[in-house]
Amino acid sequence: MRFGKNLYVRFLNGTTPQHDLTYSDVFMVPSRSAVGSRLDVDLATTDGSGATIPIVTANMTAVSGRRMAETVARRGGLAILPQDIPADVVADVITWVKSRDLVVETALTLAPADTAGDALSLLPKRAHNAVVVVQDGRPVGVVTEADCLGVDRFTQLRQVMSGDPFTVPAGTPPEQAFSLLHEGRHRLAPVVDGAGRCLGIMTRTGALRATLYSPAVDGAGRLRVGAALGVNGDVAAKAKLLLDAGADVLVVDTAHGHQEKMICALKAIRDLTPAVPVVAGNVVTAAGVADLVAAGADIVKVGVGPGAMCTTRMMTGVGRPQFSTVLECGEQARRLGASVWADGGIRHPRDVALALAAGASNVMIGSWFSGTYESPGDTFRSAEGRLYKESFGMASARAVRLRSASDSPFERARKELFEEGISTARMYLDPVRPGVEDLIDMIVAGLRSACSYAGARDLAEFADRAVVGVQSASGYSEGMPVSTSW
Questions:
Q1: Taking residues 325-348, what's their average pLDDT?
Q2: For residues 344 and 22, what is the distance between their CA atoms, to the nearest angstrom?
Q3: Mean of per-residue pLDDT scores for the chain
Q4: pLDDT > 90 in the chain, percent
Q5: Residue environment code for 380-417, b if the CB has 16+ CB neighbours within 10 A, otherwise e
Q6: Which of 81-90, 103-112, 308-317, 393-402 is least confident?
Q7: Is residue 420 within 8 Å of 396, Cβ to Cβ?
Q8: With 90 as the cut, is the pLDDT of residue 228 above it?
Q9: 418 C-beta neighbours (distance < 10 Å), count
Q10: Tell me: the pLDDT tens digits for 262-304?
Q11: Domains of the chain by start residue, with CATH
């Protein structure tokens, strides 16, 4: 690993690490700062992705779907739709996401004759935890989980809903909407147009967030969303379909990104002269970054093995500690006028800050976000009563089965014999932060504070000013909060 004057971060006391480092191996020290408030910090990225916060949701089937894409983009991040989804479905999702409002959340709606069971199956799909009962397009009631408890699942919603709901007119500024909800002691309200038709839903927390975040939007003012594709088959044709569908970022993704198929795929995509950033990966070395940038990548995705669902390091011995990966690859990308995304290993807000300090322009998060209301898939309840969703790795037998659905049974069986990834894992919803926006709030709060500790007003200054030290395992555990006395 090369350490020199061009590195993003400075190491405490000029020490030079002699081995590769994970996020847990390092810490930041505060510097003299003129940043008066963490709200003064600008978290917009400069890699062309259009994100106003440096958060990207991973192109995993259990993570990025239409609900995740809409919600994350509204708060300034970017979701990457998985490569396993058929192109026509991807096009439909992109169109749907781009039709969403920049402030108002999409409502869950049912009719008065629908049942409590129907409502209970829908409620875990959105963090606002409410179904708007509509008739002829107009809201006539609101149903929450509390309304459905203790009643027969076949009870019609007209019998359990709170009727004649308080509504907010479309176009009401977020601050005013918050005041209306607060003064009326309402947690949420349907948003209606001039004819009284339901356009969505507004919560008090959503109104607050609308004043704190800037949506990630394209040139037409619509929410941004990216899409992934692999390196096999007719890459150029698939890329053209995604571009025609309106994808704002293309991610060429394979577990081993430093290979000839990736080079050929990038060249084929560059022949299309795409007007959107092209991301490629994954790699873990400066040489890998150089080759992918030379082949046409604007952004390189870095990280092999740090993900929660990934077994690559245990199965193959291949990979690299993620902090050092981002450090070396970020230095090389900066030298070449490109950027890197840090993919994998994010378990705490501190990891996001350290990845950006090491040189990443965006941080990709997978498993952590899979345990939220907005991720695809159904919500289950464990024997202990905890809510969870199932997650799985994209090289696992389960993912291979989905990806090879058109193959013969014999070919599918052959491929499923060899897997690198967990096929099923329970990702529990945090009862305090069950929605992806709750996690984004926590990450952004930590990142803004980290920037202010470093005396940085934006991410570029943060990367230049960050001072990092190396710590022992006990040093890491010392920084953990203690919820009970000792």
A1: 96
A2: 11
A3: 92
A4: 80
A5: eeeeeeebbbbbbbbbbbbbbbebbeeeeeeebeeeee
A6: 393-402
A7: yes
A8: yes
A9: 10
A10: 999 999 999 999 999 999 999 999 999 999 999 999 999 999 9
A11: 10-79+296-375+431-476 (3.20.20.70), 108-210 (3.10.580.10)
256: left (phi over 0), alpha (psi -120 to 50) or beta: beta
Label residue 440 by pLDDT band (50, 70, 90): very high
**CB atoms inside a 10 Å sphere around CB 20:** 16
* Residue 425 pLDDT grade (very low, low, confident, very high; cuts 50, 70, 90): confident
DSSP 106: P
Sign of CA dihedral 94, 96, 99, 100: negative
Which of 460, 453, 451 lies closest to 41 in space, CA to CA? 451
pLDDT at res. 400: 58
Using only C-alpha atoms, what is the Rg of the chain?
23
**Count of other CB atoms within 10 angstroms of residue 193:** 13
Query: Region 171-192: what's the mean pLDDT?
Result: 97
Q: Is the pLDDT of residue 309 over 90?
A: no
DSSP E strand boundaries for 175-319: 188-192, 198-203, 226-229, 249-253, 278-283, 299-302
**Cβ atoms within 10 Å of 345's Cβ, excluding its own:** 26
- Say if CB 367 and CB 308 are below 8 A apart: yes
Q: CA-to-CA distance for 252 and 420, rounded, in angstroms?
A: 19
Helix (H) or strand (E) holding 333: helix 322-336
Q: Classify residue 410 as left (phi > 0), alpha (psi -120 to 50) or beta.
A: alpha
Kindly tell me if the per-residue pLDDT of 485 is higher than 90: no
Supply the pTM of this predicted model: 0.91
Active site residue 198: no
- Strand runs (DSSP E) across 12-111, as ranges? 26-29, 55-57, 78-81, 108-110
Angle value at C-alpha 290, between 51 and 76, nearest 5 degrees: 5
341: tokens are 């995304």
Could you tell me where the DSSP H helices lie in 184-301?
A: 204-212, 235-245, 260-270, 286-295
- Residue 450 three-state SS: helix
Catalytically annotated residue among 148, 198, 310, 329: 310
Side chain identity at 278, as an amino acid letter? V
3 state SS of 157: helix
Six token digits for residue 434? 């069950």
Place of tokens 């308080």: 166
Tell me what pLDDT residue 421 has. Answer: 60
Separation of alpha carbons 56 and 78, rounded Å:
5
The rounded distance, in Å, linking the Cα atoms of 218 and 247 is: 10
Cβ distance 199 to 221 under 8 Å?
A: no
CA 215 to chain centre: 14
